[in-house]
Structures are given as C-alpha cells and as structure tokens.
Input
Amino acid sequence: MSETAELPKPKGNGKALGVLFLTVVLDLVGFGIVIPLQTFFALQFNATALQVTLLMSCYSLAQFVAAPVWGQLSDRFGRRPMLLLSIGMTSLMLAGFASSTSLAMLFFFRTLHGIMTANITIAQACVADLTTRENRAKGMGLIGAAFGIGFTLGPFIGGEFAAHADGTSALSTPIWIAAGLSAFNFLLATVLLPETRRPDSESARRSISLTAMVEALSHPVVGLCVLLTFLQVFAFSMMEATFTLFAHDVHGLEPKDVGRMFGLVGIVSIVVQGGLIGRLVKRFGEKPLVPAGLLLVGLGTALLPSMPLGAPILIAFGVMGMGQSLANPSLSALISKAASADQQGKTLGAAQSMSALARAFGPAFGGLLYGATQPSMPFYVSGGLLLCGVVLAIPATARATTGPT
Output
C-alpha cells in the first residue's frame, strides 16, 4: 500500500498519546503484579520447575495465536473497541486465576488470559496512527516507558503484598488487586480513550487472513526485524522464567526480593524509553541502537548467575534494562516504518505474535535446561543467543529504509 492511504493525524494527538500511555501503564501494572508471584503461586500446588515455566508458556502461546487476529480486527473495526474488550476480559481472567484451587485451573485461566491480551498490539498500532515517521521511535518509546512503569510498580506491589503471605489464599490477594486495577482501567479507558483510526479505511474492507505472519516474514525489512525480535524475546524470556526459581533455590529469596530486582529493570526503562531514546534516535538513528541493545542484554544475562547478592546483581539487572530499552522500541519503529499506513495493525500484530511465540518456547526451553542441567545454564544459553543476535543485527538493520517498500 502507498503512503497516500495514510489517514490524517488526529488533532490533539499529544493528548491522545497521553491517554493511551496511561491506559497501557495501568494494564501493565496489573500484569506486572503477577510476575514475582506466579512461580510461588504454582509452587503452592507442588508444580515442578518445568510446570512453572510451562505456565508462563501457555499464556504466550495463546497470545501467539490471537495477536494477528486482534491486530486485523483493530484495522477493521477500530482500535478503541478492541482495546476495551481486551482490558475488560483481562480483569475477568485475572479474577479467575486468583480464585484457582488447582494447577489445572491456573493453566486454564492463564491460557484464556493470553487469548484476550491485545493491549500491546493495538497500542503500537495507535502510536503508529498518531505519530509521523520521524517521531515514531519516540512514540514507541512511550509504550516502552509504560512497560517500564508496569515492571517497576507491578512486581514491587505484588512482591510487597506477598511479603507477609502465608498460603495460597494470601498469595492470591495481589492478583485480586491486579484484577481490580484492570476493571478500573476499563472504566477509565471507556471515558477517556479516543479512537485513533477510522474503521472505514481500505484495510477494514479486507477479510481477516491468517497469512499475516507469512506476509510479514517475507518482507525484506520487516521479516529480518521480526526474526531479531523473536531471538531477543526468546532469550530474555528464558531468563525471566527461570530467575524466580533460581532466586528461590540458590539464594533463598522471597517474592518481595524478586519484585524489587525486576523493578530496577523498570526504573531503567522509564529513564531510557521515557526520554533518552528520542535523543539517541535523533543523533544515531534506530539501526545502531539494535545491536547495542542486544549486546547489553546479552552481557547482563550471561553475568547474572555469577553475581553475588547486593550491588553486583543489581548492576546486571540495570544493564539488561538498558539493553531492552534500546533494542525494543528501535525494532518496533523499524518494523512500523517499513509497513504501509493501512497495514500497521496487521504488521505490528504479526510482530507481536512472533514475540508471543518466543515467550511461549523460551520459558519452556529454560525450564528444561534448569531441570536437566544446572540452575545457571539457562542464563548462559540466553546470553549466548543474544550475542549471536548482535552479529545478525548488523546486516539485518542495514537493510532497513526510512519508508515502506
């Protein structure tokens, strides 16, 4: 599709971006609350290390299947109704997860939650609707900053509420809070969230096709960036899924300790993606930020298991947070710039689906390594994969252009 298909940017798009930012922040705070608790929650039902990581995988596998459909639905019917539906269902699925009385119920509600999660796919499409090519990386950085706040406040809140927990019912209390926060977010978004794209554009007249993934991967620029995204998310999710187990088994840490460590990653993300990323892109462009970010994440991940508690392990988390904050919005911006205006939702949905696929297999692979070898092995493999990604990123990003091909 040509650039002429792009709709005029809505007036007052700065305010619309602010509302979108608040909506995503609230949604991700609720998501972040679950992070330090999910492992401990599953362990209450005598879950093995592999089952703990599979609980994370089932969410992302369901999201992988659903994400392209959500992106195309937002192209067809508008961003706002699809985002509201996703937020509302998130609240219900979190409530079901919190009230689970068996491991099977945890898997059931976590899978449904993954199916209904469309917030990032649609939020990225909204940013593409509201920004020009020149400031799109900065706009994507707002979504990254929302991630940062969610991963700062969410794990911290979840960990602190669980600090004095005793038993399954006590551990579920923070998840009930997350469900309530999602319900409040639904009401707030209903009142404040504007529509950023008309549902009568050319893309709305297309039928929903499951070939979106193939189309995205066959694009000379989008395909390579999506593959890099897959590699980065796969490696990072291995670390994310196994670190709570590692912290519990090796260091004897509690949920509040894990929550504070992941919170540090969020603080770094807020600083970098909330303002610094725009200046860096203006000076260097997105292309060099991708390999630089992957290098930092790889180094931080590989060093993590050998770092003693205290400042050293916090430095490793800070380095990972810096790398994530550079690579993620830069890759999203390159993907968005390479896609035509009327296919932003579909293209970004396909990219998000590949991320979900990586988050599905990464934790499972990490769980297998954790149980079959030694607790530190997932971190070494993850770091090695990310360093391989640095080598791939240099020629891959060199092919990127400033517009759609």
